[in-house]
């Protein structure tokens, strides 16, 4: 069977292992995820906080995006996806050389063996170059750090944040990423950034301490329309987040994108409905929080569950966090003491 000219190895930039469709989708998905952070969360953070914190909050996200990229290519990527140094950590090294970046992508320690020594799961080797994988995984690292920024908005000095970003990326994110993706303990072709983020965000956020009581009781956004614009970018960008996780433009990617949007929409509607039933009117902030809880909820299984299950997950993500925020939080002294403004999981 003849191979179409567009897929034949006719130049050094088109080796025989390269699948142009997979490569195009991976770069597109990475761009979508990048847009979630820049400008999505930059706009969202600047708009959702009080006016006095707007510039500082936006700059925290902007700085993190740039700082994570440089740290990622200097040492971070190979600590998270390179050759094993420890059971939970890879060997740090630069990801800048042409010989490294133009070769076929692979995750060296992703091979899993049965008890008898035979291969159970072969090494992950997508049909595109390392450069595409390095950039795609950078956007995951960046948005995780920027989501962490959401937990300390208005509570952290910008100089402290500038020092914190590279340290947290290297000593926390890379450990979780290697353990889940890089081959330390498990490997699966769907996004697992959520557990990495949750396990890493909560400790630093809680150590910063709660906001002043006056800020917790009244926390109006300074620009609702821009807040919605940022939230919209976050929603649409999440399609790249979950759709790019299978590392190919395949059926899993299609299901993941559809389920992502179904769950987010369901969660938003459930949250809004609960606001109307119990408070007599819908809330724009509540709708945004419902959207975010839906996106986070579907992420670990976006390409694995059926679409009816995505609706069920959306109902749960739109109701359980609502109860924890609107009911339990107001009645629990412990929750109020440990109050964390993590807008992506709807906890105030």
UniProtKB/TrEMBL annotation:
Gene3D superfamilies: Ammonium transporter AmtB like domains. SUPFAM superfamilies: Ammonium transporter (SSF111352). Belongs to the ammonia transporter channel (TC 1.A.11.2) family. PANTHER family: AMMONIUM TRANSPORTER 2, AMMONIUM TRANSPORTER MEP2. Pfam families: Ammonium_transp. One of its GO terms (molecular function) is ammonium channel activity. It is a multi-pass membrane protein. GO terms for cellular component: plasma membrane. Residues 24-344 form the Ammonium transporter AmtB-like domain. It is found in: Membrane. Its main location: membrane. It comes from the Eukaryota. Keywords: Membrane, Transmembrane, Transmembrane helix. It comes from Prunus yedoensis var. nudiflora. This is Ammonium transporter 2. The chain crosses the membrane at residues 24-46, 58-80, 133-153, 160-178, 223-241, 253-272, 284-302, 308-328. InterPro entries: Ammonium/urea_transptr, Ammonium_transpt, NH4_transpt_AmtB-like_dom, RhesusRHD.
